[in-house]
Amino acid sequence: MHRTGELYGQYKTLDQQKETATLGMWIFLVTEILFFGGLFLTYAINRHEFPTAFGVGGNMLSLPLGFANTIVLIASSFTMAMSVWSAQTSNKKLVPIFLILTLVLGTVFLGVKVVEYKQKFDHHLIPGHGFDITYCSKNPAACQLEGKDLADEIKEIKEGVEAEGGVVALNAHAQLYFSLYFGMTGLHALHMIVGAGLLLWLILESRKGRFDANYNTPVENIGLYWHFVDIVWIFLFPLLYLINRHLA
Amino acid sequence: MSGTTTQSGGEHQLPREHYLNATYGIRSWLLTTDHKRIALLYLASVTFFFFVGGIFATLIRIHLLTPNGLLVTPETYNKLFTMHGVAMVFFFLIPSIPAILGNFLIPIMIGAKDLAFPKINLLSWYIYIVGGCFVLYSFGTGGLDTGWTFYTPLSSIYSNSAVTPAVIGIFINGFSSILTGLNFLVTVHTMRAPGMTWFRLPLFVWAHYATSLIMILGTPVIAITLLLAGLERMFHFGFFNPAYGGDPILFQHLFWFYSHPAVYIMILPAMGVISEIIPTFVRKPIFGYSFIAASSIGIAVIGFIVWAHHMFVTGEATYAAIAFSFLSYLVAIPSAVKVFNWTSTLYKGSVSYDTPMLYALGFIGLFTIGGLTGLFLACLGLDIHLHDTYFVIAHFHYIMVGGAVMGYVGGLHFWWPKITGRLYPEFLARAAAVILFIGFNLTFFPQFVLGGLGMPRRYHNYPPEFQVLNVMSTAGASILALGYLLPMLYLTWSMRYGKIAGPNPWPATGLEWKTASPPITENFHETPEVDWEPYDFVHRPDLGLSGSKPKLPGKLSPAHGDD
User: How close, in Å, is residue B59 to chain A by CA atoms?
Assistant: First the structure.
């Protein structure tokens, strides 16, 4: 025995109910685009203003971790799409399996993000009074720099200082970069956490066999949300990690 | 139509069962998903914030009675005008018409049982309350002195007042606005009754559709902007801080990208109200229906590309300034389309001066003054002189108070019989409308003159030669206050003692007037079918107007001759 989609009082038909929910989700995603849009604009303007400092900052990020996370997130989009497909084709057993996989991949992403944040903390790259972009070049022992060697790092900092006209300016502008890094990835991570909560609810519901070809609106709509959050990362990754890699 | 009373003759009776007496108890209100009850929850909370903002305004006007200030220290004065602005803009004007009248009316006007997402509707009220609590906390613990515009770096670094809770409160409140807009958009798209085509929608619904577009596209931007400013204040992030290379002007751009369209969130719903009132009291179809509908969308679209006219004196690029000046002039066109269409509707109509009509006529006059003085400010050269003077204050109060609030109070009167089932005392209401009009003009017209003479805004004192005009303004404000208190008193009184209104006291043509007053929880006993054109008085014998065909009680006759 299972409960499929009940028809709420304000609607006339289940079709209308589904159309309404889907339209609502798309409109919500439009507001999300505008929400992130403000951040992307702030990033674009400042990147244009301080290309060198932003390059130095971007090269302080861990490319292997960022790349791994990108793969993890794309994979999670695939499993999410598969759970929607399972629901649409009434493979009731498969729906929770793919949802659990999606949740696991999402959690892995967040875990990697925690490791990255911790690293930035150790490297004195948290905006605030302790921020020091030159910390790693001065204390190489305290930093493990994945994907590049220290000589490159020191050279970059040196070039950055020259281009920005002094270490104070470079430090300030690199701090602006890291403000944006934490603002953008933090907001993205927050959306991932909300998505993880939604997935948890979906998993519980789907194990009751609620979703099939007749009724799968929640799977579809949360799927839309999940894909949206993925796409944000698809933009964040190149903007934050990749732009200045050719210098390295 | 069981449960409704008949149109003609004799005393009306309240329907035996309606949304107000369907269930009782505080839980039935706080957990309701009925859009009509949620509208009343908003009415109570929005009125509260109107009072809060009103008290600050009163103190400002009393303080400005004398050149050196009568009442408070300069620091407190900064807080007064800031808190007046924050309370009025974010917690009164923006939610007023959409969240109260829109919430109540849109489902009924399109023949639906409720909004598309009733629970989300209730959620947005709770979000509003939580946001409001944060802001009240800020007001109570040190106040707020940044101006309602929160310009950085004052708000993010230097201000010693309670900026953080206020920013959090407004951030939270934004989601209430977003969800309301989302709900309206989806409702209009998917919940219309059979026969309610897009071009049979009341213009009130068109106006709210345009408003909702702005709400969902603009509000997220102010949310992220305030979030960034808040992060900067709390964690020393450097987005807008010049010390880190951040750009304070960027904050202004992002702020006005929402806050200019926000002006249209305030005025478009009021325009929708006026478009309903005028044909009703002229007994004529509105002139140029599709133009008024399209101009709402036009205002919403152009409204998004004029924001930098708030920043002509920030040293923005000359060519950018010219473009924004031109676009600002452009937005006057759809606004003027509305004004001309309303006045054309009056032509050769049979005008009756009932209270809502007085507000509507007041709106047309005051909005025209407010709109035309906006063109002064959109003019690049003149703006250098007028920027940050009382001319600006007068201009936007003519739009926001003379326009939006007149529309709001007028709409409240117009639909009061539908909301409560009872009529307000007509004579008192007409007197209040006139008092409000006089008080408003006496308050704000002198401020145009003051601004032209060069009195800057946001100063706690002024040169002695400006005193006469300031005293006039304060005197006007006290009349204006009376004009607001009167409706609050007699509307409250009428909820219990007013004459029973009946389903359609005016009579008006909208679908909302075809159900009982007050309506049942589901709005209609049966889903209505619409087979008449909007604002058509001629082919509507059910309205019971003399000159139209014999009335067919309880059943609509098809519209003849204009299929």
Answer: 36
d(CA B445, CA B403): 14
Structure tokens at B427: 């004579």
CB A62 within 8 A of CB A119: yes
Pairs from B484-491 (Cβ < 8 Å, separation ≥ 24): B484/B50, B484/B54, B484/B409, B484/B436, B486/B428, B486/B431, B486/B432, B486/B435, B487/B409, B487/B412, B487/B413, B487/B424, B487/B429, B487/B432, B488/B47, B490/B424, B490/B425, B490/B428, B490/B429, B490/B432, B491/B412, B491/B416, B491/B424
Pair of tokens at residue B231: 């992060």
Domains of chain B: 26-543 (1.20.210.10)
Number of domain units in chain A: 1
Task: Kindly state whether residue A16 falls inside one of the protein's structural domains.
Answer: no
Cβ contact (<8 Å) for B219 and A39?
no
Specify the DSSP class assigned to residue B238.
Answer: -
Helical (H) or strand (E) element with A194? helix A167-207
Nearest to B231 among A31, A38, A183 (CB): A183
To 10 degrees, the CA torsion angle through B446, B450, B455, B459?
0
* pLDDT more than 90, % of chain B: 90
Helical packing angle, B248-282 and B289-303, nearest 10°: 170
CATH number assigned to the domain comprising residue A51: 1.20.120.80
Specify if A211 maps to a domain: yes
Q: What DSSP assignment string belongs to B270-317? A: HHHHHHHHHHHHHTSPPTTHHHHHHHHHHHHHHHTT-GGGGGGGGT--
pLDDT at B10 over 60: no
Distance CA A106, CA A121 (A): 23
Give the number of other CB atoms < 10 A from CB of residue B402.
27
Q: Given this model, what pLDDT does residue B546 score?
A: 67
Give me the helices (H) in B110-247, please: 118-140, 163-190, 203-235
Per residue in A84-135, pLDDT tens?
999 999 999 999 999 999 999 999 999 999 999 999 999 999 998 889 988 8
Average pLDDT, integer, range A201-217: 92
CA distances from B51 to A199, B281, B417, B481, B493 (A): 44, 31, 24, 10, 18
Using CA atoms, how far residue B481 sits from A14, B50, B435, in Å, is 51, 11, 9
The pLDDT tens digits of the residues spanning B413-463 come to 999 999 999 999 999 999 999 999 999 999 999 999 999 999 999 999 999
Pick the residue of A176, A180, A187, A225 with the most B CBs within 10 A to test the interface with B by mutation. Answer: A176
The reply to whether residue A179 touches residue B250, judged by beta carbons under 8 angstroms, is no
Average pLDDT value over all residues in chain B = 93
Q: Is B504 helix (H, G, I), strand (E, B) or coil?
A: coil
Nearest to B247 by CA among A171, A166, A180, A165: A180
Q: Which residue range is the domain that position A203 belongs to?
A: 38-245
Centroid of chain to Cα B53: 15
The answer to whether residue A103 sits within a structural domain is yes
Residue A145 pLDDT: 59
For chain A, the straight-line distance linking the first and the last C-alpha, in angstroms and rounded, comes to 61
- On whether the CB atoms of residues A215 and A14 are closer than 8 A, the answer is yes
pLDDT digits (tens, 9 = 90+) for B180-223: 999 999 999 999 999 999 999 999 999 999 999 999 999 999 99
Give the nearest partner residue to B182 out of A28, A127, A183, using CB atoms: A28
Specify if A52 maps to a domain: yes
Using one digit for the tens of pLDDT, what is the confidence trace for B70-89? Answer: 999 999 999 999 999 999 99
Tell me the angle at which helices B203-235 and B289-303 cross, rounded to the nearest 10 degrees.
10
User: Cβ B245–A42 below 8 Å, yes or no?
Assistant: no
- Return d(Cα B357, Cα A20) in angstroms, integer: 37
